[in-house]
Amino acid sequence: MTLHPSAKLAQRLALGVPALLLGGAYLSQYGFGLYPCEMCWWQRYPHFAAIGLALLSTVVEPKRLWIALAALAILISGAIGAFHAGVEYGWWEGLTACSTPTLGGGDPLEAIMNAPLVRCDEVQWSLFGISLAGWNFLISSVAGVAILLLLRRKPA
């Protein structure tokens, strides 16, 4: 079954938005040393699922269902981002544990001792006063709603 143009756009957004957000997360991590905390990882998992669901929608019927599920995964990541941003801004209590990136190779004890400690309640980077978690919330929420609205359009 061929998708309506608006559903095809929804499919592209369902694949492109999480891919770009994950690409930005990995660029910030490996290119700029902004290591993820535990809640940062939580935001990535639904984006991985969204990519898988969007790819599934290219080959398995009912395509609109897989696109809608990808949109829901994107919205879940946005909700986690909203919670994380609230923790960063001190609006509510979050995790008390800190996390460190997993480093492979060499002496494991040395890797642990030299690994940066990343707190979930501290903003590592912001733009216009909005943290990375806040940007994930904004972008994911708008994209998820847009995808669902595009899927609701009826063929002409």
Short description:
The protein is mostly helical and 156 residues long. The protein contains five helices and two strands.
> Main sheet: which strands, in order across?
1-2
Residues in helix, % = 55-70%
What's the number of extended β-strand segments?
A: 2
Which consecutive residue ranges, at least 5 long each, have pLDDT under 50?
A: none
Cα Rg: 18 Å
Overall, the morphology is elongated
Mean pLDDT, all residues = 87
- Count of all domains: 1
**Head-to-tail CA distance between termini:** 16 Å
Element order: H for helix, E for strand: HHHHEEH
Largest sheet: 2 strands, antiparallel
Structural class designation: mainly alpha
Our count of helices gives 5
Strand proportion: under 5%
Keywords: Membrane, Transmembrane, Transmembrane helix
Main location: membrane
Membrane topology: Multi-pass membrane protein
Pfam families: DsbB
